[in-house]
Write a structure and sequence with these properties.
- The chain has 221 residues and is an alpha+beta fold.
- The protein has a single domain (3-220), classed as DHBP synthase, CATH 3.90.870.10.
- 38% of the residues lie in helices and 20% in strands.
- The chain contains 9 helices and 9 strands.
- A 7-stranded mixed beta sheet has the order 4-5-3-6-2-1-9. A two-stranded antiparallel ribbon has the order 7-8.
- Strand 1 (16-19) and strand 2 form a beta hairpin.
- Helix 2 crosses helix 5 (112-125).
- The radius of gyration is 17 Å and the shape is globular.
- The two termini are 19 Å apart.
Length: 221
């Protein structure tokens, strides 16, 4: 599936599947541009992916909101068991988790409608003047949607779904905020295999992006 078809899919508010690489997490995420998210997107990610549904945001955007990585927040806190704080994950990277949030107009925060609202409102903040003030007044933490901060330098620094999904929205000329969710397999109780993901992609007309190809594209461009 060409990169161009994936970008067109994102621009239409539709899903793309994103495979990082066999040498890394070896996982496929369902990805959609956050600005287009509806409750139906959330339901589909819940049903067909089933992993942790997160919002990935561009690094400069995160900085403008005064957001920090969760491992940094915890290392500066009075938590006694500092050894609990995640350093490098088994696949070799620092986690990109920051705060988990709910939009203030949500009820429990977890329903398809609630998470959809939290995600789209997060994307909207990218285009407001005083982002930090708007963010602080619009969101509550802890909430039900984890924020992931893409690394500075994106793919040059880290080759995760966080960076790759944000990079795809940049290529598509969209707000650099995505909703991503790992695809799980209820038969094997592990991550969905590439073969099964390819079958799902074909049956549902969803472009599948190979992270290795995306990295090659990024290097050239």
């Amino acid at each position: 599936m060409s990169l161009e078809s994936a970008l067109q899919s994102l621009k239409r508010g539709e899903f793309v599947l994103l495979f990082d690489s066999a040498g890394r997490e070896n996982e496929i995420d369902m990805v959609v541009a956050a600005e287009f998210v509806t409750p139906e997107h959330i339901a589909r990610m819940r049903q067909h992916a089933g992993g942790l549904l997160c919002i990935a945001i561009e690094n400069n955007f995160a900085t403008s909101l005064d957001l920090q990585y969760m491992h940094e927040i915890l290392s500066e806190s009075s938590i006694a068991n500092k050894e609990m704080i995640m350093g490098l994950a088994p696949y070799g990277d620092h986690p990109t988790f920051s705060l988990s949030v709910n939009h203030y107009q949500t009820y429990t925060g977890i329903t398809d409608k609630d998470r959809s609202l939290t995600i789209t409102e997060m994307a909207k903040i990218y285009n407001v003047e005083n982002r930090q003030k708007k963010f602080a007044s619009s969101f509550k933490t802890p909430g039900h949607v984890p924020l992931l901060i893409a690394s500075k330098g994106l793919l040059a620094a880290r080759q995760g779904h966080t960076e790759m999904s944000v990079y795809l929205t940049q290529l598509a000329g969209l707000t650099p905020v995505t909703a991503i969710c790992e695809m799980m397999d209820a038969e094997t109780y592990s991550a969905l295999s590439v073969e099964k993901a390819e079958k799902f992609a074909k049956e549902n007309g969803i472009p599948l992006v190979d992270g290795k190809e995306l990295l090659e594209y990024a290097k050239v461009n």
